[in-house]
Design brief:
Elements lengths: L18 H13 L8 H14 L3 E5 L2 H11 L7 E5 L4 H9 L3 E5 L1 E2 L2 E4 L4 H4 L4 E7 L8 H10 L3 E5 L7 E2 L2 E2 L6 E5 L12 E5 L2 H11 L10 H31 L7 E2 L13 E5 L5 H13 L4 E3 L4 H4 L6 E2 L4 H9 E5 L7 H12 L2
Parallel strand pairs: 2-3, 2-6, 3-15, 6-7, 7-10
Antiparallel strand pairs: 1-11, 4-5, 8-9, 10-11, 12-13, 13-16, 14-16
Helix pairs in contact: 1-8, 2-8, 3-4, 3-7, 8-12
Bound molecules: pyridoxal-5'-phosphate.
Pyridoxal-5'-phosphate binds next to helix 3.
Length: 363
């Protein structure tokens, strides 16, 4: 990888300056709503999200992590129950299952794809199974319709984690609205950001009511503030357009990179065409996570925002904490081989993208 010293990229700050967010903040100051418990912004955000995702109930909360916990509590998952999830998933999803007293059941991912393999659900099912958590990760959409069919057949709740893909669609439906209950994050690095925050989406009135009863203790125990809601509102308006630009960049990178490159973007023609990119998943041929980490470090030294991806859950948690289905080989391979590219780069100008693609092609 021979790159001239002046051939560097970035920085890639996030969030980027946004005049509509500035106006929203000025209005918060002008009308004093920045400091109030209640006001119009949270309600407006609920309405907007309900329409955008075509769901009946939106519950705003303090983070994506708390949204997953509330989805589990709203689904009545409790001590003695089992929850199926992929062995490659966001760590907090695993910990949330333990938090509500249930047992995580880890199944493998699809080969070279960081999403749950739906064909393994039969083997994972037990009389204690209550729910499935399925995340769409790093722009790779999960086969959620197949999972939903399985969940319906066995009377399980399907929790759809759309924290990384707000705005993505499968067969015209927004990810986060296809499962029984969906979750979003408004964390500081996410595509829709208020620094912190999250939301639970559902069409199940009883589930929504259970979440309300759990969180409402004379005061909301997992609140999202008026200030957060006010800065999120203008971002939703631009989400589809920004997602389109990010998709275009991913396509551009895929088209430029040759088959000689030792890293490649993970992509499924049948699913990923309408994805949203918080991260882009790249596969290396590394044998160990140490080798993969070294590639990430080298790419970062050029200013390209690459990171090692998640660790596989069965490799970082004590075996006594979960039940594993099979050997989880695909998840272990992702643990060693996956890199992610962070989204702010995806809004870069085309000539920057081309320059980066040439560099990546040479490694
Ligand atoms: C970020 C994220 C969450 C949790 O979001 P926070 O708001 O940071 O708690 C959950 N699931 C996935 C897949 C995420 O990427």
């Amino acid at each position: 990888m021979n790159v001239p010293a002046d051939d560097s990229f970035g920085p890639w700050p996030w969030p980027t300056p946004d005049s509509d967010v500035r106006i929203a903040i000025e209005q918060l100051l002008a009308d004093g709503s920045w400091g109030r418990y209640h006001g119009p912004h949270c309600m407006a955000l609920c309405d907007k999200l309900a329409r955008y995702f075509a769901v009946d109930h939106v519950h705003l909360c303090s983070s994506g992590t708390s949204a997953v916990e509330l989805a589990l509590r709203g689904s009545n998952v409790r001590s003695g129950d089992e929850v199926i999830l992929a062995a490659y998933d966001y760590k907090a999803n695993f910990v949330n299952v333990l938090t509500v007293g249930a047992r995580p059941v880890l199944v493998d991912t699809l080969p070279e794809r960081p999403v749950l393999n739906p064909d393994l659900l039969d083997a994972a099912l037990s009389s204690s199974t209550k729910a499935i958590i399925c995340s769409h990760l790093h722009g790779c959409l999960a086969p959620i319709e197949q999972l939903a069919e399985f969940a319906a057949k066995h009377h399980l709740v399907l929790i759809e984690d759309a924290c990384q893909v707000p705005g993505a669609r499968i067969d015209r439906r927004r990810c986060g609205s296809i499962g029984h209950v969906g979750v979003l994050s408004f964390g500081g690095s996410k595509l829709l950001t208020a620094g912190r925050g999250g939301a639970v989406l559902t069409c199940d009135a009883q589930l929504a009511q259970r979440i309300r009863l759990y969180t409402e203790r004379g005061n909301d125990a997992y609140p999202l503030s008026e200030m957060q809601a006010a800065v999120l509102l203008p971002q939703i308006k631009k989400l589809d357009e920004n997602n389109r630009i990010r998709r275009q960049t991913v396509r551009r990178l895929r088209n430029i990179l040759t088959t000689d490159s030792s890293i490649r973007i993970i992509w499924d023609d049948s699913l990923d065409d309408e994805s949203a990119y918080y991260k882009v998943a790249w596969l290396t041929d590394c044998a160990t996570s140490t080798d993969r980490d070294a590639i990430a470090k080298r790419l970062r030294s050029f200013g390209l925002p690459f990171d090692p991806a998640f660790p596989a859950l069965h490799l970082i948690h004590a075996k006594s904490r979960f039940r594993a289905i099979g050997e989880l080989r695909n998840a272990a391979a992702l643990h060693a081989q996956l890199l992610t590219l962070h989204h702010p780069f995806l809004l870069a100008a085309a000539n920057e993208v081309d320059r980066a693609a040439k560099l990546l092609d040479g490694i």
